[in-house]
C-alpha cells in the first residue's frame, strides 16, 4: 500500500480509544513534528529548545503578520487575534466589491450571506440545478451532490452502492494521487499532509517560474510572497484543493485558511 490516503473519523476514534499508541500514531506524530520544524525554519523561526506547541504558535503569528502585510493592513501594536480578524474582514469586503455588493455600513456576517447567496445561485445555474422556490440551504445541498457525482464521473469512479460521503472521500484520495503523479511526486510511505505540501511546493515553483521570478535559494513561503506582490489573484492557485467544493465553500476555505 504505497499511496497516501486520508483516514476516516472512525479510524481516528479507534486510535484515540486505544490504551497504547499505535505505530501509526507514533509515526504520524513524528512526521507532524518534522513538518512543523521544517515550516518554522522556512519562516526564519528558530526551533532550538522549543516545544511543538510553541513552534506552532510562532508559525501562526508569523503567517498572520505576513498575510496582513500582503493585504496592506498595519500590524503595529496588534496581536495575531486582532490581525486575523482584520484579514478576515478585508477578504470579505474585497470579494463583496468584486461581486458588485455595496459594503458601506454592512456587517461582515451580512456580507458573507450575500456573497454565499450569489455564488450558490450562480454555480447552480451553471450546473443546471433548479433554484426556483428553494431555500438557499436546499440549493447548496443539491449543488454539492451534483458536483460530487460529476467529479466522480470525470475521474471514472463508480458511484454504485456508495454514500455521498464515501464517494467524496474516494474523489479526494484520487485527486491527490493523480495530481502528485502529474507533478512526478512519489507517494510511497508518505503521510497525506506531506504529499499535499509537496504538491503546493511544486505549484509555487511553477507559477514563480511562469512569472519570471528567480527561484534560487527561495522556499515556498518566499515564492508565495513574491507571487502575491506581482499577481495577488494567482495566490489561490498555489493551494491545491482535493476536496469537492462549491464556489461558496471554496470562498469559505480561502477566508479561513
Secondary structure topology:
Blueprint: H1 9-17, H2 23-42, H3 52-70, H4 80-98, H5 108-126, H6 136-154, H7 164-182, H8 192-210, H9 220-230, H10 247-256
Helix pairs in contact: 2-3, 3-4, 4-5, 5-6, 6-7, 8-9
Descriptive overview:
The chain is mainly α. The chain has helices spanning 9-17, 23-42, 52-70, 80-98, 108-126, 136-154, 164-182, 192-210, 220-230, 247-256. The protein has one domain (9-256). 64% of the residues lie in helices and 0% in strands. Helix 4 crosses helix 5 (108-126) and helix 8 crosses helix 9 (220-230). The longest helix has 20 residues, at 23-42. Residues 17-28 have a biased composition (Polar residues). Residues 1-32 are annotated as: Disordered. This is Transporter.
Give the key terms.
257 residues, mainly alpha
Distance between the termini: 31 Å
Low-confidence stretches: 10-16
Tell me about the largest β-sheet.
none
Overall pLDDT: 87
Q: From the helix content, strand content and strand pairing, which structural class follows? A: mainly alpha
What is the 3D shape? globular
Order of helices and strands: HHHHHHHHHH
Number of helices: 10
Number of domains: 1
> How much strand?
under 5%
Helix content: 55-70%
Q: Give the tally of β-strands.
A: 0
Overall radius of gyration? 21 Å
Biased composition (Polar residues): 17-28
Region (Disordered): 1-32
Protein name: Transporter
Amino acid at each position: 500500500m504505497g499511496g497516501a490516503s486520508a483516514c476516516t473519523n472512525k479510524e481516528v476514534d479507534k486510535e484515540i480509544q486505544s490504551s497504547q499508541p499505535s505505530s501509526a500514531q507514533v509515526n504520524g506524530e513524528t512526521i507532524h513534528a518534522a513538518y512543523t520544524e521544517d515550516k518554522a525554519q522556512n519562516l526564519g523561526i528558530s526551533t532550538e529548545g522549543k516545544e511543538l506547541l510553541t513552534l506552532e504558535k510562532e508559525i501562526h503569528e508569523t503567517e498572520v503578520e505576513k498575510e496582513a502585510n500582503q493585504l496592506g493592513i498595519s500590524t503595529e501594536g496588534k496581536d495575531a487575534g486582532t490581525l486575523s480578524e482584520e484579514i478576515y474582514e478585508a477578504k470579505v469586503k474585497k470579494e463583496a466589491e468584486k461581486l458588485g455588493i455595496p459594503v458601506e455600513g454592512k456587517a461582515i456576517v451580512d456580507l458573507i450571506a450575500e456573497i454565499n447567496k450569489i455564488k450558490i445561485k450562480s454555480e447552480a445555474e451553471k450546473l443546471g440545478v433548479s433554484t426556483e422556490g428553494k431555500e438557499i440551504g436546499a440549493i447548496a445541498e443539491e449543488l454539492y451532490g451534483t458536483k460530487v457525482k460529476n467529479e466522480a464521473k470525470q475521474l471514472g469512479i463508480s458511484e454504485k452502492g456508495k454514500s455521498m460521503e464515501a464517494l467524496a472521500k474516494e474523489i479526494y484520495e484520487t485527486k491527490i494521487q493523480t495530481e502528485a503523479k502529474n507533478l512526478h511526486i512519489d507517494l510511497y510511505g508518505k503521510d497525506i499532509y506531506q504529499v499535499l505540501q509537496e504538491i503546493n511546493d511544486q505549484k509555487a515553483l511553477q507559477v514563480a517560474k511562469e512569472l519570471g521570478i528567480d527561484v534560487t535559494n527561495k522556499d515556498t513561503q518566499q515564492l508565495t510572497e513574491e507571487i502575491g506582490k506581482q499577481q495577488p489573484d494567482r495566490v489561490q492557485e498555489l493551494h491545491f484543493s482535493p476536496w469537492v467544493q462549491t464556489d461558496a465553500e471554496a470562498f469559505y476555505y480561502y477566508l479561513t485558511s
